[in-house]
Every structure is written in C-alpha cells, then in structure tokens.
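seq as requested:
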Amino acid sequence: MQYGGAFEVQNSWGEDWGNSGYIWIPYDVFGRFAYHAYEIIESLARGQTVEYAGTVQIELYNNNQGMPVRFQGGYYRTVSSYQSGTEFRYLLGNTKPAYVYAFAADEATTNTTQIFPAEGSTISPVLDYTENLVAFPGEYTWVKMDNTKGADYLVVLYAKQELDLNAIRSRFSRSRGNFPDRVAQAVGSDFIPPQQAKYEASAMKFSATSTNPKAVFGLLLAINHR
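struct tokens:
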C-alpha cells in the first residue's frame, strides 16, 4: 500500500510534471484539500439493444431467511404477511450497468418515500458495474413497517439515463388501477411491460431487453402487511 494509503492522480499538464504526469496523494492530505469529486460517465445505452438484469433480496432484521416471494400478475408478492414494526432492508444487485432508483408506497394512502438514492444524499444512482450488492436504506439501517395495514409497495426502476424520480412519484400518487398499471402510468411510454421481461417465479430475479435507449424497467414488490 503506497504511503499508508493514497490515490494516484493524473494531471492535465503533460508528462513533464510529477512522475511522468502522475502523483500520489495520501488519503489524509486528499481529505483536507478535496471538496468535490466528479465521475465521468459514458453513455450506458450503447448498441442497438439495451439490457437490464439483476436481483432484489429482502433481509429481515435478525432473520437470515428473508421474505419468500411469488411472481404473479406482473409483480412479486410476499408469500406470508408481516405485522407492523417488522424491520427489514433490501439487497439490490444488478448485473447490467444502469441508473437505479427505488421508492416505497402503500395501497392505503397516496404517500411515497424515496429509498434509493436516499433523499437528500449525495449517493449516485449510477451503478455502472456488474456483480454489485447494495443495501438500502443502508448497511446499518432498516425499514420499519408502520401502522398502515394493507400492501406495502416497493418500486425499483432501472434506466440507461437519469430519471426525474420526484415526478414519477408524483404521478404514481395520482394514478389509478392495479399496482403494475400505476407504475406504468407513472413512468410513461418508455416503461417495459412485464410481459416483455423474464422473471424467476419464486425469487426477485429478472432480465429484460429493449431497442428503445430510453426504456425503463421496473421491478415491483408488494409486501402483505397485517
């Protein structure tokens, strides 16, 4: 490990500066002087077909079994019901680069809650690598089921470009119909219909393709809340 931990930085002045244009900056020095960081993201929609694939797992607090699910009618639903106060979190994995967003809602109210990226955070929605596993709301934080009984909804959206999640949430709140129809209304014409994707029957695992570079895939879950 260089200098007890350091970043190797490339300058913009040519090879005559530093070590052929590079320099090592120790972590503690970098932290004192770097106020902003930027990532250059190339277009995720390359080629004639865009691809989406991934998984979502539910991890119950102090329970390694999670929540068993079953796919039906265009979305996943938990096999069992869970009572108010149940704590859990989601483990998100995607195997194709994508912008990823998630929000929660319930069938009894028009309220929605942004889950990923966390509202007000500086976390990027871009997961442009494969074989990742992201815990949300966080590694050390959990969602607690409130006292509003009925179905609790999770909507995870995958896209190849940035989405206006606030606008999508607002449209979802005003929409009518069954769960998948409401998500389709909220996203708009770029939404990939469930029948055009592949799902595992008893695990939240999917794959989908589209020739539309603006296509948006939605992984939908209803948790039975008693």
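The helical segments are 27-33, 165-174, 179-187.
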